[in-house]
């Protein structure tokens, strides 16, 4: 059975049975009592009855766009069904994506898969349709759905159904997918969703554990060649170790077969491994502020990014703000590798120094070798490991220090003060706070603490008063701007406080 893409002046039923082509124009009663596929228009709109009507039980949905709600009568089991393959379904999705928004396409895919594959005529797909995600993040060929999307019991029951159509079942088993949803219907369903988004990888995200200092995501792969070895890889922590140059790494046993996603924001290319690192799309306004705000003009200046991640703020400082040198610290080896990929994609020379004696072979990637012939002159200096071990490399150098750790960057404040140039500079302090508490927190916690740290770490060199008393450096600490970046939780926001530290004039 095949559907023939033929348009006629009035509805036409056409089908093959026993090798003989049958066709006739349906009566109004037939239109109202039978479930149809319609090529060109809906059969429940008789005012403009154009198109080819195909009985649902008889043919494949090639080129179809609409479905008439089925009546309560049991479906006929004697009518012949068309052979259907995953390629045919993908061709249909490719046609539909040109006609409707993605939410509508998701609804059509769900309705069709349910109608085609669930044999019980009393079942309804409406609960699935109301449970579909309405938003998502798409990064080129990678789509990340909200937490718990496609994960509840409704979907589990649907995905557990067998595929009665053997042709479709056979074509599905050939699909290249190693997502956690491994049933035939799940593979077919997410293959169609991936086709609609023109994506190679689908996943649903989950919350990052509060105690994970490396900010490693937990995602549920839904579709795509993620490589099974990476799904079962154990979580790891890096203990403090001695500094070691990049050249001492060995690569022979390191497994780097994982999926790398990419995104372009404000003219900058970012790279990350979704199974092991996060990407903060919501920080785009702060990235843009670095690129455009006069507070971030650092021409021929030095920046320290104590929590670099995959380069959210490191790369804008180099590409847009004019920094001559950025020292970037990152604890998660996968984020370090993502930063290396991003630097290379943006034409930035870099050098990596490992703050660890060795890497765990089966769970972490190798840090790239220096992309600059002279590592000491590379504009991007990356320190892989605990930033407390790296501070001596950039102490007293920075005009700007970025502290982009959430929910609080307080543990990095002493390091930030040590990194500041002796003549002062800017600290960009990230934190989460309620809107009605941020002012009090700045006045009673942030500024007093920074003043104490400046007195401790930034004193005038060996000067004394006429009475012999030690003269501490008189620092002026002022808030120049408070930026509310995005909502983090109900009534809680991500803030960035720009604090200028300068030597007070006496």
TrEMBL record:
The keyword Transferase applies. One of its GO terms (biological process) is tRNA methylation. GO terms for molecular function: tRNA 4-demethylwyosine alpha-amino-alpha-carboxypropyltransferase activity; tRNA methyltransferase activity. Pfam families: TRM5-TYW2_MTfase. Gene3D superfamilies: Vaccinia Virus protein VP39. Its EC number is 2.5.1.114. Residues 190-503 form the SAM-dependent methyltransferase TRM5/TYW2-type domain. It comes from the Eukaryota. InterPro entries: MeTrfase_TRM5/TYW2 (IPR030382), SAM-dependent_MTases_sf (IPR029063), TRM5-TYW2-like_MTfase (IPR056743). The keyword tRNA processing applies. Pathway: tRNA modification; wybutosine-tRNA(Phe) biosynthesis. Keywords: Methyltransferase, S-adenosyl-L-methionine, Transferase, tRNA processing. It catalyses: 4-demethylwyosine(37) in tRNA(Phe) + S-adenosyl-L-methionine = 4-demethyl-7-[(3S)-3-amino-3-carboxypropyl]wyosine(37) in tRNA(Phe) + S-methyl-5'-thioadenosine + H(+). SUPFAM superfamilies: S-adenosyl-L-methionine-dependent methyltransferases (SSF53335). One of its GO terms (cellular component) is cytoplasm. PANTHER family: TRNA METHYLTRANSFERASE, TRNA WYBUTOSINE-SYNTHESIZING PROTEIN 2 HOMOLOG. This is tRNA(Phe) (4-demethylwyosine(37)-C(7)) aminocarboxypropyltransferase. It comes from Dimargaris verticillata.
